[in-house]
Structure formats: structure tokens, C-alpha cells
Amino acid sequence: MYAGGDARANRVLDDELFRMVDAKNPLMAYIPASSYLSEIEFQHFVDQYRRFRVKRFLHFPVDVPFDRILFKEVLKADVIHLGGGNTFHFLLWLRKTKMLEALRDYVHHGGILTGLSAGAIMMTPDIETAAMPSFDRDENHDNIKNLDAMALVEFDFFPHYRNSPRYDAEFRKFTRKQKRSLYVCPDGAGIVIDGERKVFVGPTWLFQDGKKMAIN
Description:
The chain has 216 residues and is α/β, with parallel strands linked by helices. Helices cover 31% and strands 19% of the residues. It has helices spanning 11-20, 38-50, 68-74, 87-96, 99-108, 118-121, 165-177; strands spanning 27-31, 56-59, 79-82, 112-115, 156-158, 182-184, 190-194, 197-201, 205-208, 211-214. The relative contact order is 0.16.
């Protein structure tokens, strides 16, 4: 779960990722949050992972018509990465295309799923944190009512965190109402889940029952 940032900021998370990749010639699939300008984002993605000698990549936007054969090939990838962007738009199209369920099955059968920002939130029980904080949030232009996501983890996640009283006040209020744990990370930080192993990379804070605790 990548909170954000560029390739340099995420080097430690990338190192953790490739400790889990067994394939000698891995295939990495990139699913953007939106097809708009996604070719540029995909090129950045390719550049980032070529440094790890990855040679095979797939680009798979879900908010435009696609070939079902390509859909199946994506689900055979060694790593699938969910990009950042508007979390509500992303959830709408992952659900419409049945990719939400397919990705959940992919992980349960041993696939490696990574996500940056919106892509990371998609792994949690729902995407409520995308509407936070009130002064800097994703807009729900698609009027999504069902915010349920993949529920691959039992906690909430907030990316692009800034350690400030304005953010903290909203997270304290949120976790008094929502009883799940909320982990928040700034760009360059994130969380790795590998079976029962949980690794916090970079500065991380936990909000629970209105209280804040530093993890890293």
C-alpha cells in the first residue's frame, strides 16, 4: 500500500515488493484510476520498474472498452498495480467491470496486488477515507452510494498524510465513529502485508477511538 510519491521516494517499498516476487521474468500489470492521461502514468510506471529489470508490462484501463482476453491476461500477472486518482471514479469502474471481485480472488490465490493512493484505499473495507479531510478530498462526481471496496485488510488507510492539527482533528472524529483502525502515511511511506507479516515503511501513524499513536 503506497501512500504516494515518485520512484525515488518509494524505493524502500519497491524493495519490499520485489522480495515477494519469485518469477525470474515477471509480468507487471498497471490498472489506472482513469484512462485520461493514463499512457503518461503508465510510462512512469514502466520507467520505475525497469530499474528492477522488469521487461514485461501491461496497461489496462477499465473505464474504456477492453478485450476479455486481455482481462484474463492481466489476472495472470505476477504483480498487479492499482494507480492513483479519483477513488470514487475508480471504484465505480472496478465494480462495473467485475474487476473488484476478480482482484479479490487474485489475491486470495496468491497474487501480489499493489496500489498507490486511491489504489491502496481500494484494498480496505470501504473508501470512506477518500472523502477526507473536508478541505482536501476526492469529489464524488459519479454520486457513488455503495462505498464497499475489496476488504483485503481489516483497517482503513489514508495516503498523502500531513502531520498537522487540521488533519488530525478529522481523523480523531472519524475513528470515534468508525471503530476500525486507521493508518495514515505521507508520500514515500506505506504498508506491506505478506500473509501474517505486516511491515510499516516510513513514517506511519495509527488513529483509533479518537487517539493518535506513532507507529514508525
